[in-house]
UniProtKB/TrEMBL annotation:
A GO cellular component annotation in the UniProt record: fungal-type vacuole membrane
Region feature (Disordered): 295-314
UniProt-listed SUPFAM superfamilies: MFS general substrate transporter (SSF103473)
Keywords: Membrane, Transmembrane, Transmembrane helix
Domain of life: Eukaryota
Location of the protein in the cell: Membrane
Gene Ontology MF terms: transmembrane transporter activity
Protein name according to UniProt: Nodulin-like domain-containing protein
Membrane-spanning ranges: 61-80, 87-106, 118-137, 158-183, 189-209, 343-361, 389-410, 422-442, 454-476, 483-501, 539-562
Organism of origin: Phlebiopsis gigantea (strain 11061_1 CR5-6) (White-rot fungus)
Keyword Zinc in record: no
Amino acid sequence: MHSHPGAPPALFSVRRIATLFAALLVSLASGTNYVYTYAITAYGPQLSSRLHLSHTQMNVVGLSGNIGVYGTAPFWGWIVDNRGPQPLLALGFVALLAGYNGIRHFFDAGVPAGATDISTLTFCGLVVCGFLTGIGGNGGLTSAINSTAKSFPDSLRATVVGLVISGFGLSAFLFSTIAHVIFPGDTSEFLLVLAIGTSIPMIIGFFFVRPIPLPHSEYSHVNGGPDEIEEDEFSAASPILFQRENNSHTHLLGAEPEEPFLDDDHLEASFEHRHGHQVESTDYVVPPLRGALALSPTRSDGGRHRSRSSLAVQRRRPGYPLDKHLDGLPNIRGKALVSSSNFWLLFAMCSLLSGTGLMYINNVGSISQALFAKGNPDFDERKAAQWQATQVSTVSITNCIGRILIGLIADSTKNHLRLPRSLCISLVAAAFILSQLTVYSVDSVESLWKGSALLGLAYGCLFGLFPTITIEWFGLPHFSENWGFVSLAPMIGGNVFSIAFGRNLDAHAPAGPALNSSFAAAAAPSDSSHQCLQGRECYAGSLVVTTAACSLALALGVYAGWRDWRKERRRRAVLLRAPHLAVSEGPGWEDGN
């Protein structure tokens, strides 16, 4: 087959691979928000020590970045869905450069002479700068994920999206390593590296990150028929669906009434309504050409052809909230999204699991210091920082691995096992529960890496899987906007669990004037009035809460997977009896390819 000018590039063309690698580079620069709290010479503990921040204040500053990441997600998603990735990448450049340079300014200024704490105005400025780093990073990540999801077919979507998101998880480890190797102990210079190192990739992405249309041979087949070609996702025109019915009872001149949209609960009833006729049907989609005339299909035999617009095929029964797309996925947004039980199910699971992950990530430095300080009269600041760095590296690396791994598992579950990807949600929730139980059982800093590894893996799997589930449940046309609304969940869960953790830790700290919340400037544990010295008891209560939350998420995940599996099994049973009814398949019915 000869390609013609303007035809979409091949699946593994230079343009498509360049977009993938540029998206990965942008993603690597977008996840530095997590560098704040748990890197060896990263600025979180050092900033809190220099500015005399309490544990609660430290969590507020860290969460300001998280709010920037998740709170702006719906609006950023709407922009990238409607205007493309370039506006957000330009915004990311400005926000990241300004945010990290602002934090550097406050760090260099320190606490005013004669004062014991920074002013309220300075603290608010610090929070605003953290917020800027969050919105800049999320702008880059949203652009990278959107372009990647639209540039690869469904069979590879979870894998490539997981690969790109893995850069977000590896970002903290990458920049922390740079800080340790190139600028050991120089926090000010490290903040300058963050400002430059995160903003430049946004400019590179501005020129290379964009959706690449899929070649027609790679479009998902709606019903598995070899002659069916999915509507171009980047075309606004509606294709024409032609259906050939081999039915001797078809009237020559009588117009058949259009069938309403049939969901999986109505397919079998429709089959029984066929009066016992075995109907053979071949449906195929002719992609639209703007300005072209809609012509009748060529007859290959004596069968009767009838054409129906996609609007007729997608017409739904009253009250049914889904607007079907011809790739077999729904096309849901706005009011239909927030009125969907699927959205609230996904939102609840994401809030419970991501809140657990953010709580640990934001406080793993404090956890490692609490374990190291218990019963240790010879506290060594450098050794404490090394143990903290171990947790950083472990969480960041396993976070990256989890995002890649869950993409491969999810695609294999669907493509090879013929099961819904939502079954993988239970695996993610179980990994979270195991991580919390492991951290709870650890009573020495030497063993904390086990809990950090499991938590990082689970957290990576969560954000590697849920974007693809969002596409399957709500469709691709408004994916970034929908994922943005789902992404509000971590902001809620992270705020609740992280602030509760900070208050719990402060409640176990020795009474005394607020000095600092880390050992960065302390010679011994007794010199820090805000350091809990009780080891695991400092945070055990918080772990009980998160374990219960993850158990609830597991129950919801089991329900979601069971429901989708039952729906898929019912669909397959019906299609064995009436293959022609697949033309009206519902969400997730592309699994039968």
